[in-house]
Structure formats: structure tokens, C-alpha cells
Design goal:
Order of helices and strands: HHHHHHEEEEHEHEHHHHE
Strand content: 5-15%
CATH topology of the largest domain: Nucleotidyltransferase, domain 5
Mean pLDDT: 90
Strand order of the largest sheet: 4-3-2-5-6
Low-confidence stretches: none
CATH superfamily of the largest domain: Ribonuclease H-like superfamily/Ribonuclease H
Structural class: alpha/beta
Radius of gyration: 34 Å
Shape: flat
Number of domains: 3
CATH architecture of the largest domain: 2-Layer Sandwich
Distance between the termini: 68 Å
CATH class of the largest domain: Alpha Beta
């Protein structure tokens, strides 16, 4: 680069200098325009506040009179008193230097909520449930769909549609579910009024079922119910509105039957929830492997790996709600 500069300084054209030195003219120009690493130290403005004055401004901002006020409010109040200590930007600058650009009023401090960590290794261990709204025949009319799902098999073990949400209705649904499918180890839900109602809490305590709840305002803590509601409401057959409560109940019954027995779920090896819940997936998987083996024998060039079945057909050994980090030893509610 020094040779290039010497040639151009002596009157040689940039094109000739580039040809002689082998340095592209764009590189030389970029190097010329690159700022030097050593920049002159910026001098303090002549009108800058002194250290004593900045301390006085901070004392005013933190005084009992203004500690709960924003700088622009302090600025206006001081002007009304005939006092000027600095601009609004100066006040913000001084507060920023002392890490006070935040909510300066006293705030309530809530203890951190424990993240629920649940694992299921088979059907009947962890149930998740929630309530979703179904639009009725007129604006402002809604029906409540109570849905309980087995976390491992994705099987809908219970569904009810009512005109209102209440703890006793949820308790009645749970009793029917437990009588039909057995009592699970854990029942997980969010913190809605029905989920935390005394009737539901008493039922689960009497049966020895562990109650688990999502953290406040964290929908990801109840992913299986939320995901199922999206599957429901994004289905092509889902109506914009239901004509009546009876219409909603018939639709939910038919949709759940289709989902349990016909929908092949990607999270459970493309089996139907009913196959996994009732233990029929082993037979289905064996038949699939036989079909793939026959196809491989007929056309081995069409199979690029030694793996017989694609990975998407694998059924997971464990299903988690909030799986812990690998660095920490998991402490699930269900082993």
C-alpha cells in the first residue's frame, strides 16, 4: 500500500499504480477513506454542567417532591416555581448515568413462579385441560368447550360444551373422564377460575392427583391444550358461528371422534391418538415396517439410508411440558 501511495503522490495515475503494485484501486480507495483508529479526544462543551451542578440536579430529581415524577414533569414544575436547573435532555442524561432511567416509583414485587416441568412416558399419566370459547348465533353469545387431553397419546379423553364456565361443571366432566379412562398422576391446567376452583381442587385431592398450573400469563406452559384448540379452530369444517348449544355439542362430538380415530399426529409417529392411547400402535408400526421392507427389496435404489423407517414414524419415549435444560438434573412430577 505504501508503494501505491508513493506512485500516486509522484503523479502516476491510479490505474498505472494499480497495475504495477497489484493493488486494486477500490482497495486503495477504501483504505484511504477508512477512519484512523486514533481519534482526537472530544472536548467537553463549554456550556456543560459542572460536577457540582450535576449532583445538585440529581438531588432535585431524587427529592421527595419529584422522586415519583418523570423528568418532563419535574422540568415544568420547576419552571412554574421560577427555577431552572437544566433541560429535559440533561435530566435524562444524568439519570441514565446513575441507572435511574426506569420506573422510579415504588413497585410491587412478586415472587417468581416455578416453571412446571412434567413428563409422561405413557398414556394415562398426565392430563392437560382447558376451556375455549365457541362463538354462538349472535354477537356476544359464546359457549364454553371443556376439553381434556392425554399429554402422551394426544387422545381427547373428555369434552363437554356448556353455556357457561364453572368449577362444578368441570368437576363433573373430570369424574366421568376418570371413571372411563382411569385416574392420572397429574392434571395440568392454567389458572382460570374453573381450573383453580375449590370443587376441582377437592376432587383431585381426594383422588390423590397432583395439581399442576401454568405460570400467570404464560400460555406456553399449557402447550398441548393450546395446540389442540388451534387444530380445532383452523380446521376447514370449523364453523364461523354455531347456531345453538346443541349444534356446538354435536360438532365437538364428531370432531373429537375424527381427531381421536382418524387424525395422524406428527408428534406421535403419525399414529392416531386412539392407536397410541389403547396400545395398538405396535401392530400398526410393524405393518408399516413390513410395507417399507417390501418396497426396499423391490427398489433398493430409492432408499438412500440404512434406516428402515423414516424418523417421523418414531414414537417418542417421553413427552414433556417444559423439558429442563440438559445441564440440570430434571425433577419431573411423573417418572
Amino acid at each position: 500500500m505504501d508503494a501505491y501511495r508513493a506512485l500516486t503522490a509522484g503523479g502516476t495515475s491510479t490505474r498505472a499504480a494499480a497495475r504495477v503494485t497489484g493493488i486494486a484501486r477500490a482497495s486503495a480507495d477504501r483504505d484511504r477513506r477508512r477512519p484512523t483508529p486514533l481519534r482526537p479526544v472530544r472536548r467537553a462543551p463549554a456550556n456543560a454542567l459542572s460536577a457540582v451542578e450535576r449532583t445538585q440536579v440529581l438531588q432535585v430529581l431524587d427529592s421527595p417532591e419529584f422522586v415519583d415524577a418523570a423528568p418532563w414533569q419535574v422540568y415544568a414544575a420547576l419552571l412554574d416555581q421560577g427555577v431552572y436547573v437544566g433541560s429535559i435532555a440533561t435530566m435524562y442524561r444524568i439519570l441514565r448515568e446513575h441507572r435511574q432511567v426506569r420506573e422510579r416509583r415504588r413497585q410491587a414485587r412478586h415472587r417468581p413462579r416455578t416453571r412446571p416441568e412434567l413428563v409422561a412416558t405413557g398414556p394415562g399419566q398426565v392430563y392437560s385441560w382447558d376451556i375455549t370459547k365457541l362463538a354462538g348465533p349472535a354477537r356476544g353469545v359464546y359457549y364454553d368447550a371443556y376439553v381434556m387431553i392425554d399429554v402422551y397419546s394426544r387422545y381427547i379423553v373428555g369434552v363437554r360444551v356448556h353455556s357457561r364456565e364453572s368449577g362444578p361443571l368441570a368437576e363433573d366432566m373430570m369424574r366421568q373422564v376418570f371413571d372411563t379412562h382411569g385416574v392420572p398422576h397429574v392434571v395440568h391446567a392454567d389458572r382460570g377460575t374453573s381450573m383453580t376452583s375449590k370443587s376441582v381442587a377437592d376432587l383431585l385431592e381426594d383422588l390423590g392427583v397432583t395439581r399442576s398450573h401454568s405460570r400467570p400469563k404464560v400460555s406456553n406452559d399449557n402447550p398441548f391444550s393450546e395446540a389442540w384448540f388451534k387444530t380445532l379452530k383452523y380446521a376447514p369444517v370449523f364453523p364461523h358461528r354455531f347456531a345453538s348449544l346443541a349444534h356446538a355439542r354435536v360438532f365437538m362430538t364428531d370432531f373429537v371422534a375424527w381427531y381421536n380415530h382418524a387424525h395422524r399426529h406428527a408428534g406421535i409417529g403419525l399414529h392416531t391418538p386412539a392407536e397410541v392411547h389403547h396400545g395398538r400402535h405396535h401392530t400398526v408400526r410393524a405393518a408399516r415396517e413390513q410395507t417399507l421392507a417390501t418396497a426396499r427389496a423391490a427398489h433398493p435404489e430409492r432408499f438412500s439410508t440404512h434406516r428402515l423407517a423414516p424418523k417421523i414414524l418414531d414414537l417418542p419415549d417421553q413427552v414433556w411440558i417444559n423439558k429442563p435444560d440438559q445441564q440440570t438434573e430434571p425433577q419431573p412430577l411423573v417418572a
